[in-house]
Amino acid sequence: MDRWEQLFIKCQNCTKCGLHTNRSKVVIGRGNPSSSLMFVGEGPGEQEDLKGLPFVGPAGKLLDLLLESLYFKQDEYYIANVVKCRPPNNREPYDEEAQACLEFLREQFILIRPKIIVCLGAVAAKYLIDKDIKITQDRGTWINKKGCWMMPTFHPAALLRDPSKKPAAFEDMRKVRMKYDELCRNCK
Ligand code: SF4
């Protein structure tokens, strides 16, 4: 059994936090696990919980469209979340839930070894970049952590709630495209 299979089994059997009680499916990730570019969101929503895949509801469709418009192919990135089970009513994960689940995300980072990580929304940015980060103020800024380039930007669900944020989100993704072209085009 390889390390990905072990990770899947660990997540599927996980009861480390209360979110396991209401899940339909554990949501681990989608996309190319050999990619150098990763997007990390907050947690699964209703559609994701039913299908067992992240970002497959309306917010995920918007993210895919945004990435397509910048000529990213689906096999050029991998998407995961801070928590692998759906928080009730799409609330933010509690700190103890996120802390319990981060072990799995860290394992995904070890297996994927991304050169670029884009944090989609405040929850991902808080756990991966800086606990005091403010998305509106800090979005679109690159931070290098241990050789990995990280950027916070809006969660696509925020763009659905407030379409006036779309131009800024597009600008952030354009920077991701440029960084990807600089670092990753021929690397995997
Ligand atoms: Fe386990 Fe993460 Fe699900 Fe909590 S959210 S039960 S830590 S897999």
What does this entry look like structurally?
The protein has 188 residues and is an alpha/beta fold. The chain has a single domain, classed as Uracil-DNA Glycosylase, subunit E, CATH 3.40.470.10. The chain contains 8 helices and 6 strands. The chain has a 6-stranded mixed beta sheet with strand order 1-3-2-4-6-5. Helix 1 runs antiparallel to helix 4. The longest helix has 18 residues. It binds iron/sulfur cluster. Iron/sulfur cluster (SF4) binds next to helix 4.
Bound molecules: iron/sulfur cluster
- The overall strand count is 6
**Radius of gyration, CA atoms, in whole angstroms:** 15 Å
* Mean residue pLDDT: 96
CATH top level? Alpha Beta
Gross morphology is globular
Low-confidence stretches: none
Assign the CATH topology.
Uracil-DNA Glycosylase, subunit E
List keywords for this structure.
8 helices, 43% helix, binds iron/sulfur cluster, Uracil-DNA Glycosylase, subunit E, 188 residues, six-stranded mixed sheet, alpha/beta, globular
SSE map:
Layout: H1 3-12, E1 30-31, E2 37-41, H2 46-51, H3 58-69, E3 78-81, H4 95-112, E4 116-120, H5 122-128, H6 135-138, E5 143-145, E6 148-153, H7 156-161, H8 166-183
Parallel strand pairs: 2-3, 2-4, 4-6
Antiparallel strand pairs: 1-3, 5-6
The structure holds iron/sulfur cluster.
